[in-house]
Design goal:
Blueprint lengths: L6 E5 L3 H13 L5 E5 L2 H8 L8 E4 L8 H10 L8 E5 L4 H10 L3 E4 L4 H17 L6
Protein backbone atom coordinates (compact mmCIF):
# COMPACT_ATOMS: atom_id res chain seq x y z
CA UNK A 1 0.00 0.00 0.00
CA UNK A 2 1.54 3.29 -1.07
CA UNK A 3 1.55 5.97 1.56
CA UNK A 4 1.72 9.67 0.88
CA UNK A 5 4.78 11.54 2.11
CA UNK A 6 3.91 13.49 5.25
CA UNK A 7 5.43 16.62 6.70
CA UNK A 8 5.57 15.88 10.44
CA UNK A 9 6.26 18.44 13.14
CA UNK A 10 7.64 16.80 16.27
CA UNK A 11 7.47 18.96 19.40
CA UNK A 12 9.78 17.17 21.83
CA UNK A 13 12.39 18.45 24.28
CA UNK A 14 14.18 15.11 24.75
CA UNK A 15 16.90 14.59 22.11
CA UNK A 16 16.80 10.81 22.65
CA UNK A 17 13.08 10.74 21.82
CA UNK A 18 13.70 12.78 18.66
CA UNK A 19 16.40 10.31 17.62
CA UNK A 20 14.08 7.40 18.39
CA UNK A 21 11.37 8.74 16.08
CA UNK A 22 13.90 9.47 13.31
CA UNK A 23 15.27 5.95 13.65
CA UNK A 24 11.77 4.43 13.54
CA UNK A 25 10.86 6.35 10.37
CA UNK A 26 14.15 5.28 8.74
CA UNK A 27 13.66 1.64 9.81
CA UNK A 28 10.17 1.65 8.31
CA UNK A 29 11.60 3.14 5.11
CA UNK A 30 8.97 5.84 5.19
CA UNK A 31 10.12 8.91 3.32
CA UNK A 32 8.42 11.43 5.59
CA UNK A 33 9.82 14.87 6.30
CA UNK A 34 10.46 15.47 10.00
CA UNK A 35 10.58 19.00 11.35
CA UNK A 36 11.79 19.33 14.95
CA UNK A 37 10.88 21.81 17.64
CA UNK A 38 12.43 21.54 21.10
CA UNK A 39 9.47 23.21 22.83
CA UNK A 40 6.09 24.80 22.27
CA UNK A 41 7.51 28.28 21.68
CA UNK A 42 9.83 27.01 18.94
CA UNK A 43 6.92 25.08 17.39
CA UNK A 44 4.69 28.18 17.35
CA UNK A 45 7.50 30.09 15.62
CA UNK A 46 7.68 27.37 12.92
CA UNK A 47 3.87 27.33 12.57
CA UNK A 48 3.76 31.10 11.92
CA UNK A 49 4.70 30.33 8.32
CA UNK A 50 1.36 29.05 7.06
CA UNK A 51 2.85 28.22 3.64
CA UNK A 52 4.77 25.23 5.06
CA UNK A 53 2.38 23.81 7.62
CA UNK A 54 2.89 20.20 8.69
CA UNK A 55 0.37 17.49 7.77
CA UNK A 56 0.43 16.13 11.29
CA UNK A 57 1.90 17.22 14.59
CA UNK A 58 3.36 14.87 17.22
CA UNK A 59 3.45 16.51 20.60
CA UNK A 60 4.99 15.53 23.92
CA UNK A 61 2.79 16.15 26.94
CA UNK A 62 5.51 17.02 29.46
CA UNK A 63 7.59 19.89 28.16
CA UNK A 64 9.19 22.93 29.78
CA UNK A 65 7.63 26.40 29.39
CA UNK A 66 4.46 25.37 27.56
CA UNK A 67 3.20 21.84 28.28
CA UNK A 68 1.37 19.76 25.67
CA UNK A 69 -2.14 20.69 26.80
CA UNK A 70 -1.32 24.41 26.98
CA UNK A 71 0.20 24.19 23.49
CA UNK A 72 -2.89 22.41 22.19
CA UNK A 73 -5.12 25.15 23.65
CA UNK A 74 -3.06 27.79 21.79
CA UNK A 75 -3.44 25.83 18.52
CA UNK A 76 -7.19 25.41 18.95
CA UNK A 77 -7.66 29.20 19.29
CA UNK A 78 -5.93 29.86 15.95
CA UNK A 79 -8.15 30.09 12.83
CA UNK A 80 -5.79 27.96 10.70
CA UNK A 81 -3.70 25.93 13.17
CA UNK A 82 -6.77 24.53 14.96
CA UNK A 83 -7.34 22.21 12.01
CA UNK A 84 -3.90 20.56 12.25
CA UNK A 85 -4.18 16.92 13.34
CA UNK A 86 -2.27 16.85 16.62
CA UNK A 87 -1.28 13.56 18.24
CA UNK A 88 0.12 13.27 21.75
CA UNK A 89 3.17 11.02 21.79
CA UNK A 90 3.88 10.57 25.47
CA UNK A 91 4.80 8.22 28.29
CA UNK A 92 1.81 9.33 30.39
CA UNK A 93 -0.98 6.79 30.76
CA UNK A 94 -2.65 9.02 33.36
CA UNK A 95 -6.42 9.05 32.74
CA UNK A 96 -6.62 12.73 33.73
CA UNK A 97 -4.01 13.62 31.06
CA UNK A 98 -5.78 11.56 28.40
CA UNK A 99 -9.19 13.12 29.16
CA UNK A 100 -7.71 16.64 29.24
CA UNK A 101 -6.10 16.10 25.82
CA UNK A 102 -9.28 14.79 24.20
CA UNK A 103 -11.28 17.56 25.88
CA UNK A 104 -8.91 20.09 24.28
CA UNK A 105 -9.31 18.53 20.83
CA UNK A 106 -6.34 16.21 20.35
CA UNK A 107 -6.64 13.95 17.28
CA UNK A 108 -4.92 10.99 18.95
CA UNK A 109 -3.10 9.89 22.07
CA UNK A 110 -0.22 7.42 21.72
CA UNK A 111 1.45 6.06 24.83
CA UNK A 112 5.10 5.29 24.10
CA UNK A 113 5.78 1.65 24.92
CA UNK A 114 8.99 0.65 26.65
CA UNK A 115 10.03 -1.87 23.98
CA UNK A 116 11.51 -0.28 20.87
CA UNK A 117 9.86 -2.80 18.51
CA UNK A 118 6.44 -1.94 19.95
CA UNK A 119 7.24 1.76 19.55
CA UNK A 120 8.12 1.22 15.87
CA UNK A 121 4.81 -0.63 15.34
CA UNK A 122 2.81 2.21 16.91
CA UNK A 123 4.63 4.82 14.80
CA UNK A 124 4.06 2.74 11.67
CA UNK A 125 0.32 2.49 12.37
CA UNK A 126 0.02 6.19 13.18
CA UNK A 127 1.89 7.34 10.07
CA UNK A 128 0.00 4.93 7.80
CA UNK A 129 -3.26 6.21 9.28
CA UNK A 130 -2.43 9.87 8.76
CA UNK A 131 -1.04 9.31 5.26
CA UNK A 132 -4.45 7.85 4.27
CA UNK A 133 -6.43 10.76 5.69
CA UNK A 134 -7.66 13.74 3.76
CA UNK A 135 -5.50 16.41 5.37
CA UNK A 136 -5.95 20.15 5.43
CA UNK A 137 -3.59 22.25 3.37
CA UNK A 138 -3.79 25.91 4.30
Amino acid sequence: MGTRKLRILLVEDDAIEVMKLKRAIAKLEMNHELIEAKNGEEALEILKDHSVLPDVLFLDLNMPKINGIEFLKILKKDEILRFLPTVMLTTSSNRKDILACYDTGVAGYIIKPLKYDHYVEKIKSALEYWSMNALIKA
